[in-house]
Amino acid sequence: MKFLNIKSIHICAAVLMLVLAGGCKKAIEIGPSLVTANAGNAFSSNSAAQSVVAGIYSRMSQGSFFQGQYGISINMGLAADELTNINSGASSFGPFYTNNYSPALAPSFWAEFYKLLYFCNTAIDGISNSPSVTGNVKNQLLGEVKFLRGFIFFYALNLYGTPPLTLSTDYTINNTIGNSTPDALYKQIINDLKAAQAALADNIYVDANGATVTDRVRPNKQTASAMLARVYLYMRDWKNAEDEATSVLGSATYTLLPQQNISQVFLKGSRETIWALQPTSLVYLNTIDAYYLIVNTNYRASLQFPISPQLQNAFEPNDARFTNWVSTFTTPATPAVTYYYANKYKVSSVSSTIAVTEYPIVMRLAEQFLIRAEARAQQNNLTGAATDLNTIRTRAGLGATTASGQADMITAIMHERQVELFTEWGHRWFDLKRNNLLNDVMTTVAPTKGTTWASFKQLMPIPPADIQADPNIVQNPGYN
């Protein structure tokens, strides 16, 4: 059961854009909003508010950050050591692959973040202040949108360092707010996620009216807890990271699929899924990532982004993830060349008649085992860390870890994250960055891409237009 059908989602998206985006001229430079004039209409009832929130989900599903050729999974996979760009004609990917991000490229993620944050802030204000949005619907919608805002701020922080902390729809505030700090951003992210925890359904997934559903396309309490576990891990708050991950792992709602079903992890009905996006495109009915990552002779007969030699060589012999999540493509040219490519998603069709069997999975249970393993290792609970690590290794058909000592255990967990979470949501890039390994790895990898590495490239550049609009915003070092 879907929370809305595709036609309804597109209507809701249109409503969202008309009501919310009329004054959204730039990522931060936001003029007077149509919300002021239309607040009575946008939030005049439970159903009207539900339509606004559905429009935010639709925007996310189709947005340039969340999936596809401009999404984080492909582009940060190229930026790190996961993917190779063999398509010389794909010029839009070159700056990521060579780590030569120019300020002109910067709007690709930044603009999407701040449009969505503007929509979220408008929804939070409108729902909170509307007497017509009532009861459980009000609580649920506020919980969902606060979760989404915390999720977006998390990525803005980790990609840009000190992005503005915009919590207002007032353009006079947003255009003078300037850079924030990691501490302030993380504080707000935690506040939003804790508010979501308190408001959202516990151990079930519900639609906009609170009815139980099977699709996991709206966050619940465990989704907020899973995101909090990741946030605390990045903050090096090991105890809280362990506790939040444990709360998710203790839920009967989720199950790590066994080895014999590992090829089904990324199906829309997977019980390993914590949160997924519902595809709303009228063209890409399954996932946009699959269209660009895998080969389908009916739709994309050539390969663009094979996995890198570094990733290929990271897999141990007989790893079921390599067998089920990686495929090969041999070129028709002479001499033939065989490439390996990420095949977690199986359906690349753009046919309007094909069945929808895959959703873009944002968060899944395996990450929580690895979060808890790392948090335990950092607290020197090596037995507990090994137990969680071995849960993932056993599912992959591998033997128990041989790591001994804290440093070895942490290294083993980082390796397991590399082969478990590849091409998912920039995990590899962020893992290297937060463990102070990015400079060392990229100094070695960059020459294989035909480029050179510099430490400032760990952060993306801020769009010049937004610096001009807000003189209090300072460009990240290295991009002036």
Automatic annotation (TrEMBL):
GO terms for cellular component: cell outer membrane. Residues 336-479 form the RagB/SusD domain. It is found in: Cell outer membrane. Pfam families: SusD-like_3 (PF14322), SusD_RagB (PF07980). Keywords: Cell outer membrane, Membrane, Signal. The keyword Membrane applies. InterPro entries: SusD-like_N, SusD_RagB_dom, TPR-like_helical_dom_sf. Residues 99-233 form the SusD-like N-terminal domain. Signal peptide: none annotated. Its main location: membrane. Belongs to the SusD family. This is RagB/SusD family nutrient uptake outer membrane protein. It comes from Mucilaginibacter celer. The lineage of its organism: Bacteria, Pseudomonadati, Bacteroidota, Sphingobacteriia, Sphingobacteriales.
